[in-house]
Amino acid sequence: MKDAEALAALAIQMWTGHDPEDLTEEFRRLLMDDEAVCFIKFADDTPAGFAQCQLRHDYVEGTESSPVGYLEGIFVSEGYRKKGYAAELLSECEKWAKEKGCSEFASDCELDNADSLRFHLALGFEEANRIICFRKEL
């Protein structure tokens, strides 16, 4: 599937610690899942950005309904930023979630990702909570 490969090529620029082949396989699965969707923004026939969202049925921080549309990832390549592509991609995700019966849409970002925080706030998200996650080996 060409779309899975294009998605993985974009996603690896954001999720740098992942294996490209694993990402391609993950996108292949997502493209066949009716509770998930991926959108690709093309500029001059070149994949410039993507958004991945899906339905979450478990509790989503700050929400009161279920399912919730959830923005799992959004990315626009360096040379294509500041053109409104991310806003277009987010709009498609929100439209899809609404069509799936969602009344709320959510997302997250790392505490130190100031660009993502600004993006979310500029496009109408409100901060619901801040958390630090912990782990330890057993």
Protein model, in words:
The radius of gyration is 15 Å and the shape is globular. It is 36% helix and 22% strand. α1 crosses α2 (20-31). The longest helix is centred in the middle third of the chain and has 15 residues, at 85-99. It has four helices and four strands, in the order ααβββαβα. α3 links the parallel β3 and β4. The chain has a four-stranded mixed beta sheet with strand order 1-2-3-4, with helices on both faces. It is of the alpha+beta class and 138 residues long. It has one domain: Aminopeptidase (3-Layer(aba) Sandwich), CATH 3.40.630.30.
Map the helices and strands.
Layout: H1 2-14, H2 20-31, E1 36-43, E2 46-56, E3 68-76, H3 85-99, E4 105-106, H4 114-122
Parallel strand pairs: 3-4
Antiparallel strand pairs: 1-2, 2-3
Q: What's this entry about, in short?
A:
This protein has 138 residues and is an alpha+beta fold. 36% of the residues lie in helices and 22% in strands. It has helices spanning 2-14, 20-31, 85-99, 114-122; strands spanning 36-43, 46-56, 68-76, 105-106.
